[in-house]
Write a structure and sequence with these properties.
mainly alpha; 0% strand; single chain
Length: 199
């Protein structure tokens, strides 16, 4: 298992850094704007020509410029948020929805489903793990079904055996099939299955 920062964490860190950069840029822009020549010019030109602007005229001129700038910055901020939202939907929610749909089908018994694993991050690893789980379950079912048929055939041979030698051969076949089944289950369920000991 890899250590360090994961793909999704890096992507989310990028989104947060992007939004932080947008916020910082907007804060610097408003600060520079309020201290800039345009505001000073508006303050100087407020009021009738040749008259010194009064308090309310200065305030109205500055507020008008600030409101215009704030609306422009809010538009930029909303565009940045929309971009991050769309990237998040495309890069995280889309693959996650595909994984959930596939796992629902697998849970309902359709083991032929494969989860697309185009991502090179946790979602891709999750998809690969689900695909491996489905493939292992299919293999386990096929192998255990074959061993079960072998055991049933051995039991049928045991029932119809006429000699002691035939019964011994059928018993050996059933025991071998059950032993293989135990080994198969133990191999696939190493952490949770402990099959009964066979004599």
């Amino acid at each position: 298992m890899k250590t360090g920062r994961s793909g999704l964490k890096r992507r989310m860190a990028f989104y947060i850094l992007f939004l932080g950069t947008v916020f910082l840029t907007l804060a610097i822009e408003i600060t520079l704007f309020l201290r800039g020549a345009r505001v000073a010019g508006a303050l100087a030109s407020a009021g009738p020509a040749g008259a010194r602007p009064s308090g309310p005229e200065i305030v109205d001129a500055v507020i008008g410029l600030v409101v215009l700038k704030v609306w422009l910055m809010l538009g930029i901020l909303l565009a940045a948020l929309a971009l991050v939202f769309l990237l998040f939907i495309k890069r995280v929610t889309g693959p996650l929805s595909a994984i959930l749909e596939a796992t629902d089908r697998i849970a309902s018994g359709d083991l032929s489903v494969t989860v697309p694993s185009r991502e090179a991050n946790e979602l891709g690893r999750l998809a690969q793990g689900i695909n491996a789980l489905a493939a292992n379950t299919q293999e386990l079912l096929l192998l255990s079904g074959g061993l079960s048929r072998r055991a049933h055939a051995g039991l049928e041979a045991l029932r119809s055996a006429e000699t002691g030698e035939d019964r011994a051969a059928a018993t050996t076949e059933v025991a071998a099939a059950l032993t293989e089944l135990d080994q198969l289950l133990a191999e696939y369920g190493k952490t949770f299955f402990a099959g009964p000991e066979r004599p």
